[in-house]
Amino acid sequence: MRKLFSTRYNAGAYNTALLVLRLGFGILLAHHGYLKFSNFHQTEGYMMDFMGIGKSASAALVIFAELFCGILVILGLFTRLACIPIIIMFLVIIFKAGHADFFGKEELPTAYIIPFIALLFTGAGKISVDHMISK
To answer: How many domains are contained in the chain?
Structure first.
């Protein structure tokens, strides 16, 4: 019972929590990216033309962020670097496409961006490819 109310830092629990965070949100995001990739023409149809680069390029950038960067987050490989395109993608979704409606239509993207911001600050942890490379 004391452990539940303890404020002490436990390195094992911290690294396990980062693994769960990476796997959980990385798998969810990569799944969305895979669905968009496998139905590219349909995805292209509902994409917004962000900054005049075209719907195809916008769809490709979203697929890159969701699928490929999502896989890198799952593996814990270049985690901080992989979080940057993901965060940018969610910022565009929240502010440009959703008009900053945090508690309405854009509540889910707002919830998705938070763990990737946390991973940007913390990194992948010890249970990751990043940690194996740095040894």
So the answer is: 1
> In this predicted model, what pLDDT tens digit does every residue of 8-43 receive, in sequence order?
778 888 999 999 999 999 999 999 999 999 999 998
Residue 16 placed within a domain: no
Please give the full DSSP string across 70-103, using - where no structure is assigned: HHHHHHTSSHHHHHHHHHHHHHIIIIIISTT-TT
- Write 6-12 long-range contacts (CB < 8 A, 24+): 11/126
Domain that holds residue 29: 24-129
Where residue 67 falls among pLDDT bands split at 50, 70, 90?
very high
Q: What is the largest CA-CA distance in the chain?
A: 57
- 116 within 8 A of 90, measured Cβ to Cβ: yes
φ/ψ (deg, to 5) at 55: -70, -35
Could you tell me if residue 63 is inside a domain?
A: yes
Tell whether 90 is covered by a domain: yes
Answer whether residue 113 is part of any domain. Answer: yes
**How far apart (Å, rounded) are the C-alpha atoms in residues 67 and 128?**
18
Task: Say which residue the tokens 């889910």 belong to.
Answer: 108
